Amino acid sequence: MSVLWHLDELIAATGGRFSAQPSRDITGVSIDTRSIEKGDLFVALKDVRDGHDFVAAALEAGAAAALVSHRPDGLAKDAPLLVVDDVLDALEGMARAARARMAGQVAAVTGSVGKTGVKEMLRHVLHQFGRVHAAERSFNNHWGVPLTLARMPRETDFAVIEIGMNAPGEIAPLSRFAQPDVAIVTTVAAVHVAAFEDVSGIAREKAEIVAGLVPGGTAVLNRDIETFPILQRRAKGVGAKIVTFGSAGRPVFHLESAQIKGATTVCTAQVHDRKLFFKLAAPGRHLAENAMAVLAAVEGLGQDVAHAALDLAQWEAPDGRGARWRVDLGEAGMDGAILLIDDAYNANPTSMGAAFEVLAAAQPRDGIGRVARGRRVLFLTDMLELGDIELTAHADLASHPTLSTIDRVHSAGPLMEALHTAMPQGKRGEWYDSAPKLAKRVAALLDAGDAVLVKGSKGSQAALIVDAIKKLGHCAPAASLEDEDEV
C-alpha cells in the first residue's frame, strides 16, 4: 500500500511530536477501531465518545500510530503517539496540508437535498477522467470534511467533498478547507429549519459554499429555486463564474424531460446550444435534476460533458438513497418476490415527494400473492429537524398528488401520527410510535408482488424496517428492469 503521510509531513502539518517513533509511514487515517487497517493513523477525536479510550485497541489492531492530545492510561512507554494540543485542530492542519500538496481539482457540494447523490454521481463519472477521491459515507461536518481531506492521496486528480450544516456559520470554514474549483448548491429547502428563521437564512448559509472557492472557480447553482438570487449574489461577490441548472426558465444546463421507466430514468436536456440525451440506471426526476448539476460540474472541471452523460447510465443509487432490492419469498423464490426501494437514509418534505413519485412509477405484479392485486406500499418514519413546522409538514404529505397511486401508507414515530390521522381511510395503514414496532409487522403487511418503499430520517430508524423486509427472504439487487418485471 502506498504511503499517505510521511512522518515528517505529519509533524509539520499537525505541529505535534512523536512520543516514540512509529515503525513505518502512514498508509491511512481512521477514527474507528472497528475498521482499522495496518499502517493507519488512529485519530482520537472527541465526539459521542472520547477516542482516547480506544487508542490501545487501535494500536493492537495494527495502527501505526495514534494522534492524541494526551497519553491514555495503560499504554506501553514505547507506544507510537503523535501528541498535539488539540486533536481536531491537528486534523484540520492535515486537511490544509493535504489540499496544498494536491495538484488536482476539487468539487464541493452542498444543498438541502441531493448532496450525497450528486457526490456519488460525480465520483462515478469522474473516474473515466482520472483518479478520484471522495468520502465513502456522508462525512460532511466539522470533522468529516477535514477527515476526508486528510485521507486524500497526493496523486488525486479529482476530489469530491460533501459539505453539510446544522446551524449558521458551519459551511464557510469547511469550504475554506476544501478550496474548491467548483462549488455546487443542489437546492435550498425547509431542512434544519429549527436553526434558522426562514428558508432565506438557509439559502444564505448554503451560499457560503463559495467562501473557499479558488480564484476563477465555478459556482453551479439551481436556477429553479426561489432563493436563487441569494445564491447568485454571494457567488458574484467572490468573482465566481456562475453556471445554472434546472428545468424552468433558461438555465445553461436545462433538463427538458425526465421519464421514469421502471428502474431507469430517460432524460432529454439542452446544454448550451446542443441537445443531450442520456439515461440513469435509477428512477427519479430528482435524480435527473441532480445529474444536471453533475454535468455542469464536469464542465467546470474542464472535462467532457457528453462522455460523463453516457457514463451516468451505469450509476446506481446507493443503499439508503434509492437502492432497489428484489426479495424472493419461500424456498428458491417459489412464493414470489417483493420489490424493495431503500430510501431510508434521510427525509424532508421535498425528498418525500420525490420518493412518492419513484414508488408511483414502480410496477407491482398481480396474481402471485395472497392478495390478488400487487400493491404499492409506503413505510415512513419521522422527518426530523423541521422546527415549528414539523407537525404541519407531516400532515401535508397526505395531500401530495402522487399518493393517489399508493395503496397503503404505514408509518412510525410521534410526528408521523399527524400523517396517519390525515390519510384517507382507504390508504391509511398501521401506525406505531417507533420504527422497531413497525418493523416487527412487515411480514403481515406485505405480500408477493408488492412494490414497497421505505423512507425516513436516519435518526428515526427507518433502516430497521428495510432490514426487516430484507430478512423476509433471499435478497439481491434488482439490477435491471427485467428483475423488476418478474417481481
TrEMBL record:
<dbReference type="InterPro" id="IPR005863">
    <property type="entry name" value="UDP-N-AcMur_synth"/>
</dbReference>
<protein>
    <recommendedName>
        <fullName>UDP-N-acetylmuramoyl-tripeptide--D-alanyl-D-alanine ligase</fullName>
        <ecNumber>6.3.2.10</ecNumber>
    </recommendedName>
</protein>
<keyword id="KW-0961">Cell wall biogenesis/degradation</keyword>
<dbReference type="InterPro" id="IPR000713">
    <property type="entry name" value="Mur_ligase_N"/>
</dbReference>
<feature type="domain" description="Mur ligase central">
    <location>
        <begin position="109"/>
        <end position="298"/>
    </location>
</feature>
<dbReference type="Pfam" id="PF01225">
    <property type="entry name" value="Mur_ligase"/>
</dbReference>
<comment type="function">
    <text>Involved in cell wall formation. Catalyzes the final step in the synthesis of UDP-N-acetylmuramoyl-pentapeptide, the precursor of murein.</text>
</comment>
<dbReference type="GO" id="GO:0009252">
    <property type="term" value="P:peptidoglycan biosynthetic process"/>
</dbReference>
<dbReference type="Pfam" id="PF02875">
    <property type="entry name" value="Mur_ligase_C"/>
</dbReference>
<dbReference type="InterPro" id="IPR036615">
    <property type="entry name" value="Mur_ligase_C_dom_sf"/>
</dbReference>
<keyword id="KW-0131">Cell cycle</keyword>
<dbReference type="InterPro" id="IPR035911">
    <property type="entry name" value="MurE/MurF_N"/>
</dbReference>
<keyword id="KW-0963">Cytoplasm</keyword>
<dbReference type="InterPro" id="IPR013221">
    <property type="entry name" value="Mur_ligase_cen"/>
</dbReference>
<dbReference type="GO" id="GO:0071555">
    <property type="term" value="P:cell wall organization"/>
</dbReference>
<comment type="similarity">
    <text>Belongs to the MurCDEF family. MurF subfamily.</text>
</comment>
<dbReference type="GO" id="GO:0005524">
    <property type="term" value="F:ATP binding"/>
</dbReference>
<keyword id="KW-0132">Cell division</keyword>
<feature type="domain" description="Mur ligase N-terminal catalytic">
    <location>
        <begin position="26"/>
        <end position="97"/>
    </location>
</feature>
<dbReference type="Pfam" id="PF08245">
    <property type="entry name" value="Mur_ligase_M"/>
</dbReference>
<feature type="domain" description="Mur ligase C-terminal">
    <location>
        <begin position="338"/>
        <end position="457"/>
    </location>
</feature>
<dbReference type="GO" id="GO:0051301">
    <property type="term" value="P:cell division"/>
</dbReference>
<dbReference type="GO" id="GO:0047480">
    <property type="term" value="F:UDP-N-acetylmuramoyl-tripeptide-D-alanyl-D-alanine ligase activity"/>
</dbReference>
<keyword id="KW-0067">ATP-binding</keyword>
<keyword id="KW-0573">Peptidoglycan synthesis</keyword>
<keyword id="KW-0436">Ligase</keyword>
<dbReference type="GO" id="GO:0005737">
    <property type="term" value="C:cytoplasm"/>
</dbReference>
<dbReference type="GO" id="GO:0008360">
    <property type="term" value="P:regulation of cell shape"/>
</dbReference>
<comment type="pathway">
    <text>Cell wall biogenesis; peptidoglycan biosynthesis.</text>
</comment>
<dbReference type="InterPro" id="IPR051046">
    <property type="entry name" value="MurCDEF_CellWall_CoF430Synth"/>
</dbReference>
<keyword id="KW-0133">Cell shape</keyword>
<dbReference type="GO" id="GO:0008766">
    <property type="term" value="F:UDP-N-acetylmuramoylalanyl-D-glutamyl-2,6-diaminopimelate-D-alanyl-D-alanine ligase activity"/>
</dbReference>
<dbReference type="InterPro" id="IPR004101">
    <property type="entry name" value="Mur_ligase_C"/>
</dbReference>
<dbReference type="InterPro" id="IPR036565">
    <property type="entry name" value="Mur-like_cat_sf"/>
</dbReference>
<keyword id="KW-0547">Nucleotide-binding</keyword>
